[in-house]
Design a protein that fits this description.
Blueprint (H helix, E strand, L loop, with lengths): L8 E4 L5 E5 L2 E5 L14 H24 L3 E11 L18 E10 L3 H14 L1 H7 L16
Antiparallel strand pairs: 1-2, 2-3, 4-5
Helix pairs in contact: 1-2
Length: 150
């Protein structure tokens, strides 16, 4: 299979809110009131955590099928620790991103603990979001100035 390209486009509707479009889906990203947002939706780092959980869910079910067992229910808990000082411009001492991310899977299944251990190992290796969170990915950021001719 050839590479797939995913794209999100959108615009800033305020200093804390971005409304994006991913295929036919509207994505609203906002900050909580404590960070001067309107708390209309999840913030960017919560979307990262949700994306990680969603990806593990998809890969987890795919791998379970390949290993020949069924997941009746899969609860996923994910959290991350961030020190906001760099983001807020208060200090350069810590990184801006997550210090740690913890993801806990609670499957309801008849699979043995040995099968689940193998399942988890494969899920970790094949989850694209985990790969992006664990490894450096080249990122190119550019800026274009909007102007009008008079």
């Amino acid at each position: 299979m050839s590479d797939l390209k995913f794209t999100v486009t959108g615009n800033s509707t305020s200093a804390t809110q971005f409304i994006g479009q991913a295929r036919q889906f509207k994505l609203v990203i906002d900050e909580p009131e404590a960070l001067n947002g309107t708390d209309e939706d999840a913030n960017p780092v919560e979307y990262i955590l949700a994306g990680f959980a969603g990806c593990v869910n998809v890969v987890g079910h795919l791998v379970a099928k390949e290993l020949g067992f069924k997941i009746e229910k899969l609860d996923i808990e994910v959290s991350g620790q961030i020190n906001p000082n760099r983001f807020l411009g208060v200090s350069q001492d810590e990184r801006a991103g997550f210090k740690t991310i913890e993801l806990n899977l609670i499957p309801k299944t008849d699979a043995s603990i040995e099968t689940l251990a193998k399942w988890l190992e494969i899920v970790e290796a094949r989850c694209p979001v985990r790969d992006n969170l664990s490894n450096k990915t080249p990122i190119k950021i550019s800026v274009e100035k909007e102007y009008s001719l008079k």
